[in-house]
Amino acid sequence: MTGRTYSVSLTVNGRPHTLDVPAHHTLLRALREQLDLVGTKECCTEGECGACTVLVDGQAVDSCLMLAVEAAGAEITTIEGLADGDRLDPLQAAFLETGAVQCGFCTPGMILTAYALLLKTPKPTHDEIIRHMDDNLCRCGAQVRIVDAIQDAAGVAKGGAL
User: Fold this and answer.
1) What percent of the chain has pLDDT over 70?
2) Buried b (16+ CB within 10 A) or exposed e, 32-49
């Protein structure tokens, strides 16, 4: 079954793209298969784990739940778009410095979810970070270090228990 294909124009990591996508393809699939941006991870495909999180017009979105055609005209940021050449974004650097990266599978989604929080709330409290990151899963147990990394990047005092 082939189905109908749509032409979708969007901007990904600052670059304009026009993609021909089947109506049923998710943004996740378009990013990974058509643009070769594999930092966006495919895991649960049900919006439960956050591994596929990208920013759509500055908002954290599970790309496994969004159809590519719904992203028409949007500004998409993937993990590949945060660094400036070889210079990591401060949030990426904080994840490395605090040891918040273990196996690394959840890291792109964690960083983009945290990035969206810091865009909205530049100096979040410990509890705000916990609430905001609640939809992202880390099976390695790095949650405390992830919160520490976000606090470091935001320049706020560390503290509080999970």
Assistant:
1) 95
2) bebbebebbbbbeeeeeb
